[in-house]
Amino acid sequence: MRKIILLSFSISFLFSIDGKIVFNDGTTVDGQINSVNRSSIYITPIGLNFPEEIIIDNVDSLKLDNGKLLVAGNQVLLLYSNGQFTAPEEEKLNRQTPKEYNLEYVLVPNWSLNIYTGYPIIKGASFDFYDDINPVYGLSIGSPWGFFMGNFFVNAIAELAYYDFNVTNNPDYEKFGGLAGQIGVSPGFFIGEYSISLTACTGYYHAGPGFIAGGSIDLPLGSIILNKYGDVEFVENMEGVIEALEIRVTGRANTVKKYDGGTTYWLGGGISLGYEF
Q1: Each residue's pLDDT expressed in tens, for the chain with a length of 277 residues
Q2: Are residues 92 and 37 part of one domain?
Q3: Cα dihedral 32, 156, 105, 139 sign
Q4: Are residues 199 and 87 part of one domain?
Q5: How far apart, in whole angstroms, are the C-alpha atoms of residue 257 and residue 176?
Q6: Which domain holds residue 116?
Q7: Of the residues 106, 125, 155, which one is the last residue of a structural domain?
Q8: Domain boundary among 106, 124, 151
């Protein structure tokens, strides 16, 4: 949901310049070029008011309106940041000495993918019958559809969850488990480089409808890696991918219908690994 862009001492969009990106398939996009690094171009396309990240591997060329060529044949000829052009070789030399970095956070509506695993910590009375309780696994897709204002956002999400609770040495006992599909919303807000988000979903479980309510603390895994290992060549080359990673510490309350017509619940804790694109 929030792109984290590493910049030195100032904010790049103050120094944006106009240019045109030509993709490998011949399509183009015009707009304001905010920055160019070894792996990505950040551009605010004409008609939009927020920047988008374009991976260099997808770009044939980037030419500014003043005729300056920054990218040609998937190769970065000149880097651009804070109104300054730098040759890639010069930047590598500069990286040998420690630098201070400020973080620019831009709230960008986008898609995200999170893989979740958790375990029931507090369970309803119905769980007294189950002594073979396995971890819960989930896949969550966050959409760019919703409401975004300042540091606050609400966006639509969809989830798949798999749960499997059984009774040991009693194969005839009715299994409690299956694959659940659900949709909902995820409101949240940012505090610096961290964010707190909530989840409210409903969907169909093995025996009928169910509901989930939860909360997460989102940690910017990508920026943590870049700040600590940004000078490592592999990390440097994968900067655009790594900065989109996040990890969440999550708590969830699940209310699920049973085959006998009643309901049961469990409260679980877990973690999820996410990627924004």
Answers
A1: 444 333 333 334 445 689 999 999 889 999 999 899 989 999 988 877 778 899 999 999 999 988 889 999 889 999 998 888 888 877 655 555 444 444 444 556 678 899 999 998 887 776 767 788 889 999 999 998 888 777 788 999 999 999 988 888 776 677 788 999 999 999 998 887 788 999 999 999 988 899 999 999 988 888 888 888 888 888 888 887 888 888 999 999 999 888 877 888 889 999 999 888 7
A2: yes
A3: negative
A4: no
A5: 10
A6: 109-276
A7: 106
A8: 106
Q: Is the pTM of this model over 0.70?
A: no
State whether 124 and 192 are in the same domain: yes
Q: How many other CB atoms are there within 10 angstroms of residue 48's CB atom?
A: 12
Q: Find, among 235, 181, 241, 168, the residue nearest to 212 by Cα.
A: 181
Phi and psi at 122, nearest 5°, equal -115, 130
Helix (H, G, I), strand (E, B) or coil at 61: strand
For the chain, the domain total comes to 2
* Burial class of residue 42 in the structure, from the number of CB atoms within 10 Å of its CB (0-12 exposed, 13-18 middle, 19+ buried): buried
Same domain (yes/no): 114, 88:
no
Chain centroid to CA 172: 42
CATH of the domain at 229: 2.40.160
Judgement on whether residues 67 and 121 belong to the same structural domain of the protein: no
Residue 5 amino acid letter = I
Can you read off the two tokens belonging to residue 118? 């958790």
Which residue in 74, 70, 30 sits closest to 55, CA to CA? Answer: 74
